[in-house]
Amino acid sequence: MQFVLEPLPYSENALEPHLSAETLRLHHGKHHAGYVKKLEKLLRDEPQAKQSLEQIVKTSTGHVFDNAAQIWNHDFLWRSMSPDGGGEPRGELASAIARSFGSTDAFRKAFHEAAESHFGSGWAWLVLDGKELRITTTSDADLPLRHDQTALVTLDLWEHAYYVDYRNEKERYVSAFLEHLIHWDFAAANLAGLKRR
User: Fold this and answer.
1) Residue 54 is inside which H or E element, if any?
2) Which residues of the chain fall below pLDDT 50?
3) Which pTM was predicted?
């Protein structure tokens, strides 16, 4: 298969003032695009190239895994944010968060602490693990798909995701995501088992 850079689900400036058009232009147009180009080069003329991206993520190692997983992670990241994000979850998602964390505010606090304290490059996730919602972080390109967990939303913790707008103040970036960008409807659709795209 040919690996393609999926377009952003909104314009480059749609997440302003919380994430700038410059950040999305660099993050999506350079970093994300770079993973696509590298994977295409790594798998050119290889039988593995005929597999789906998820199959490659589940079965590969080394550079192939790193690039395939980062494509998957970024495709998921863009949908984890919305220009109309933030606010409160609704319906079954709200109930599940209350069961697992006590309240949405308690979830936000726990997610913020996990994301801010994660050392180095990686990702913060809200996942369904069995029948429970959990907050987890992964390093580098690692992702819930490799740990039998269902991702609901994610936040990129690599410095290139926030440095243009927040410099070294990762805590402000995490707060902006939780207060203004988190896409609860996307998380709810994933919890309900709907397609990501």
Assistant:
1) helix 53-59
2) 194-197
3) 0.96
